[in-house]
Amino acid sequence: MVIGVDFVWLIPAFPLLAVLINGLVGHRLSERAVSVTAVGSVGLSFLVASATLVQVIADPAPAVTALFTWIPGGDLVVEFNALIDPLTAVMMMVITGVGFLIHAYSIGYMHGDSGYARYFTYLNLFTVSMLILVMGGNYLVMFIGWEGVGLCSYLLIGFWYERTSAIKAGTKAFVVNRIGDAGFLVGLFLIFARFGSLNYSDVFSRAGELSTATATAITLCLFIGAIGKSAQLPLYTWLPDAMEGPTPVSALIHAATMVTAGVYMVVRNHVLFDMAPLSLQTVAVIGAATALFSATIGLVQYDIKRVLAYSTVSQLGYMFLACGVGAYASAIFHLVTHAFFKALLFMSAGSVIHAMGGEQDMRKMGGLAKHLPKTATVFIIGAIAIAGIPPLAGFWSKDEILGAAFKHGAPVLWFMGLTAAAMTSFYMFRQVYMTFYGSARMDHDVEHHLHESPNVMIYPLIVLAALSLLGGLLLGFPPEEGWIHRFLGPVTGAQAVPAGRQEAHAIGAIDYILMGLSVAVALAGWMTARQIYLKKPETAGALASRFATAHSVLYNKYWVDELYDATVVEPSKGLGRVANRFDDRIIDGIVNAVGNLTQAGAALSTGFEKYMIYGLLNITGYANHIAAAILRKIQSGQVHHYAALLVIGIFILVNLYLWFFDNTTVALLLSRLSLNGGN
Amino acid sequence: MVPLSYYVILSTMVFVIGVIGVLIRRNIIVILLSIELMLNAANINFVAFSHYLQNINGQVFVFFVLTVAAAEVVVGLAIIIALYRGKATVHIENINLMKG
Amino acid sequence: MNFAVTDIGAVLPEVIVAVYACAILLIEPFLPKGRQEVLAYFGFAALGVAFYGTWNLMRTDLTVMNGMFVLDPFGNFFKLLLYVAAAMTILLSMEYLKREGIDRGEYYAFVLLATCGMMILVSASDLIMVFLGLELMSIPFYILAGFKRFEEKSLEAAAKYFILGSFSSGILLFGISLLYGLSGTTNLQALALHLRGAELQNPAWILAMILLVVGFGFKIAAVPFHMWTPDVYEGAPTPVTAFLSVGSKAASFAVFLRVFIEALGGIQSDWRFLLIFLSVVTIVLGNVVALVQTNIKRMLAYSSIAHAGYAMIGLIVGDSLGIFSLMIYMLIYAFMTLGAFGVVMLLRREGVEGDEIRDFAGLARKDRLTAFAMLIFMFSLAGIPPTAGFVAKFYIFMAAVNAHLTWLVVLGVVFTAVSAYFYLRVVMVMYMKEPDEAVQLSAPPGVVMVLAVAAAVVLLLGIYPSPFLDYAQEAVLKLR
Questions:
Q1: Cβ B26–A640 below 8 Å, yes or no?
Q2: Where are the domains of chain C?
Q3: Is residue A326 a contact partner of residue A410, using CB atoms and an 8 Å limit?
Q4: Residues above pLDDT 90, as percent of chain A
Q5: Which residue segment(s) compose the domain that B68 sits in?
Q6: Which chain A residues contact residue C210 at CB under 8 A?
Q7: Rounded to two decimals, what is the model's pTM?
């Protein structure tokens, strides 16, 4: 690298400065001063990050820059250092770019809140932590960021602490995250035990020395961390609850950046994961299962933000699926596009909530398109993007992941992903129709006060909408050969291609078929949603019936070719009759069946969530409490009981000693535990 | 000459009596006495070993232990008196305000 | 038998502290009531002079008084820590004693005497000195625990601590007498020589070793010898509790380490797994029982039990990295614990004990800075970066990984995650609950100073610990 990279420290330094200013004197400053400081700092970071990106494009070799020696000590010296390579550059662009837009949006959204300065302090602190997480040149620096984002997430979920549910959600998020962090930390110590260093460069260059078993142990521990942070099965429960926080927070932390930290971490450590096929398989299976599972839940939610939350969990599942099948660049590609459209969806949902005076129940919305035309437009763009309809961003990245899964030789995972894609499309358009179309179901009072959000909220949405429209094409076209794949190539290596597929680099027939299927299921999901939520008599009305006609036209276009083929000898009258009957019986039948199925599936999965996951969490909690209650009983307050326990302690130690030295098997076991535990 | 083991057996018996006294007696003053027994069991050991090993260190240790024991008793009695003033009891089962 | 003047020089810090303590006792009757806090400045002077002395002797390494007393960087590291802890305790006490109506001058004398005992403890090189140091530390603590002598809880704490403390001393002493009988010496170096390459034929060795483990385990509050901790912590005056949980624990760990590594190092394989067992049950029980506590002092007591379990890992590892990590752990633990108790003291006001967790409700509204300081201490105790508590745990676990005790690390890390729950509860109550009533917190300058120093050190050690670590490392190299 020609120019030194030391200036990258400016990227986290700007928001950190803003944290100090707003944290110390923010409550005395005007809203304007606070927002200028906060938003401006992230804007400056974005500029520096862009400069870094330009430089990395010129020279993609990884560059390490150390700020100071953090932990000195004998065998282990840990520097507070940064590693700048294409992966970091991409992540920094997402964090500062999308972060900047969300900060700007927050100016309008949080206007008038009593905790205005506090909000921006936390948000900037989050940006700092997230930047440290992706910039860190060793595991320990990453862990600081890792804990820091969890902490900020906790503070921001509980931001409106007047609500008990917000406090509970914040605590839940933090504790669940800590479970994951424990796994991450254990992995970190295992890495140190094996390599004697925590620097990425040392670890990755010597990764070949690992045995498969050790690599599996390390990567599984790291993956536990990713499960917690990125809300995968079975630790995903905190994310939907996290929607108690302000909506821009949901957009920034619980959709665009923090929850993708797990994906980043897996990609960063792909050298280790590549050595552990079992871990990769686990990652892929958990990813696919999460994608499908949370999509089913998303089908029946009525809270506008919860749908998006489950959708986030589901999309993160796709990213892990990509990691699991070795398509690391695709995972990051999807991470980037997802950041665009999910931030867009969340913030336009926020705009809706803003307009509705805090109402989040979609059953009390409807017909908002005519009141909030701009919001509706950008939301629909986001919905199309996430549904995977070309040429919007989501299509390219999601299709690539599904293709990679299929070609990796995992048709079951591919099918799970495809099913989830159909559901994604379904619930997104269900949301569109329930919110923006149909009859208005809100009070007259609310309806009277409906207003489009201020420009400071709309402009970021427009930028994100543009990115959602074009981002996929710009970054990832042609598939698997796009700019982002070539750019990330030095980090992720060539896309891990199974042997025998090297020659098929050009897009072949199989790719087109897979692509067609993706599009087909996305459209099917859309159509089903339209059918159910616009055609049902409850939502009938002039608008609904007009759309119903439009639908049947569209429908006939879609099926008509096959119908013609099948009934080529039928008279045209018969054709009309068959078409009608088809419309009456079969379509309704399909629609009802889909409806029942999704209801049943969702009931099943919410039941699973309610009784299994929470049950398990509660059992752990109760077990702890019961144990604590029993142990408390020993603490009777009676001195002679204490003295007796002390004497019992002596007996325990003596017996332990005798037992230990008399029983050779136990001795062998214990000595193995303490001597070879490291490997 | 009395064999060393006799002394060790004696001191162990005294020590165990002291421990059991602490465990089963309820009067704090008796507990205090039992603790003194434990300390003196150690003293018997020190003196016996010192004589047996022809090494003066053990007897020096005994002097220090005696001094410390005296200081301990002084403080202990003071605490007992203060306790008695407040509660009019030196029964150990009655001091259990704090538990759990 | 020779006696050099340099020997006096080596023990000068101890002598200074003891002389000042006696001076305080002498002056105290001549001071009018209500002017007793002058004596606190005597205490600062004693600690300051001793600090200066130890600072100058820092890099010396010699054994004096016929092998009774050793002056080395390891001991000096702990002494410096003890001076700071004692000074912070006095700072915490000044206002507190007045408010409680127990502002008697001898309080400061006892604090100094206990400090002197700890200093002897960390420098002891002979079991006689170990025993004397332990008693000189404990006896003033028995008195200090019952210093609120019109309050039943305080007296109860004193009585419990006294009975169990002297009980454990008796057990320790019996162990020492057995060691003496077996080896013919009470000197740690001579014991080490005796044990070098020796096979343990006599089971009395094992008994003696176990009795020592019990005696020291009691002082560091290792399960199952921890039972006194919650009751005494709750009942004792809060500054005493702080000093007890910091000074007493640090000094006891220092002597535990010196006796077991230096003297009994030869039979490490015999005691290692016993300590592993103790460490595991201590970590588990401390963290689990802390979950259900409603009194913050009891919660901190269980937290201190759990921390003892973590610190024991450094002792179990026993190599230079292990010792080093234990020293760092004690240093960091001292500051975060003192800070946490300092915040607890601020909540004490007329008619309200202020030591229930619910008393923290809405603290962030009433006093932003205090709440923020408490947040730092809680996060540090929970081991969350970038606070010092993380650095401490990191070193301990790193040492264990190096010694191939990975499974112990896994257990420790998992229970660190559990501990986040109860530390976080305090933060949650402070930041996310409405205050019950509008009350003005009084903030005595002494307490504010302690909080500021502790918070600054906890943050500094978390973000840039190098200078402290360098010194600790040097100290370890000398010890080995």
A1: yes
A2: 1-263, 267-480
A3: no
A4: 1
A5: 4-94
A6: 650, 653-654, 657
A7: 0.82
